[in-house]
């Protein structure tokens, strides 16, 4: 899930390993630049198909061909797709997450940053899957722009990106519902996160929540066709990008 710097403590991975080994109450403390500390149960990464939000189930229905699952976490989406007969490669930057996925039976797993040149070793994919606010893996507006170009090298002809993100402008609403943020500052959807498990604190990493209009602008500028497949009342959406 994270795009944090290697060599720092792998807080996410350690929490996933603990849960997988039977510590079912394992939780992550998530610190962000826009909200109070949140508690994230490791169990969330192990959810079954019917525990997944409808938007994620829709994304799985829309997958086709060879799938590259980016930021795959504990592999819940990759395992579901495998059960449906898909050929899936699951990737995460967290070594612990990779270990958990291998132990859970994900057949193809690799530990990579999404920008890693060795990510696919030249292989092309029909679907790039980026769930759990997966656009966030790109980190920043500059990272989003960079990834949209990079993804063209990963996609087979006629391939698609299926991704989710959210508009978090509601965090900046005042009591009257007006938005209050610095128009000359960084994009309001750029957030910094740090995860902590037990006494281990991972490095701070960048995460972006791209509002639909911004995502469409960036994707169309990069030459993609944009199709919004689903939206919910939490300002989250599922988008298909084809190139």
TrEMBL record:
* Matches recorded under CDD domains: AdoMet_MTases
Q: Which SUPFAM superfamilies match?
A: S-adenosyl-L-methionine-dependent methyltransferases
Methyltransferase domain sequence ranges: 67-159
Any GO BP annotation: methylation
Question: Which Pfam families does the record associate with it?
Answer: Methyltransf_25 (PF13649)
Which GO terms of the molecular function aspect are on file?
A: methyltransferase activity
Keywords annotated in UniProt: Methyltransferase, Transferase
- The domain of life for this entry's organism is Bacteria
| Keyword Transferase on entry | yes
* InterPro entries associated with the record: Methyltransf_25, SAM-dependent_MTases_sf
Name of the protein described by the UniProt record: Class I SAM-dependent methyltransferase
């Amino acid at each position: 899930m994270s795009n944090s710097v290697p060599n720092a403590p792998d807080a996410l991975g350690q929490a996933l390993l603990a849960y997988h080994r039977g510590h079912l109450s394992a939780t992550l403390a998530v610190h962000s630049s826009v909200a109070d500390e949140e508690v994230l149960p490791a169990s969330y990464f192990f959810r079954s198909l019917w525990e997944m939000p409808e938007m994620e189930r829709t994304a799985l229905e829309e997958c086709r061909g060879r799938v590259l699952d980016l930021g795959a976490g504990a592999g819940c989406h990759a395992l579901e797709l495998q059960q449906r007969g898909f050929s899936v490669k699951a990737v995460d930057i967290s070594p612990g997450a990779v270990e958990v996925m291998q132990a859970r039976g994900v057949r193809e797993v690799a530990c990579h940053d999404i920008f890693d040149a060795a990510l696919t070793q030249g292989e092309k994919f029909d679907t790039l899957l980026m769930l759990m606010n997966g656009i966030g893996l790109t980190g920043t507006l500059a990272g989003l722009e960079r990834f949209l170009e990079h993804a063209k090298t990963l996609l087979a002809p006629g391939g698609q990106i299926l991704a989710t993100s959210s508009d978090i402008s509601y965090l900046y609403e005042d009591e009257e519902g007006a938005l209050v943020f610095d128009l000359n500052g960084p994009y309001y959807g750029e957030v910094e996160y740090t995860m902590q498990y037990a006494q281990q604190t991972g490095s701070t990493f960048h995460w972006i929540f791209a509002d639909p209009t911004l995502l469409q602008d960036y994707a169309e500028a990069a030459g993609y066709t944009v199709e919004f497949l689903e939206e919910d009342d939490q300002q989250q959406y599922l988008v298909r990008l084809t190139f």
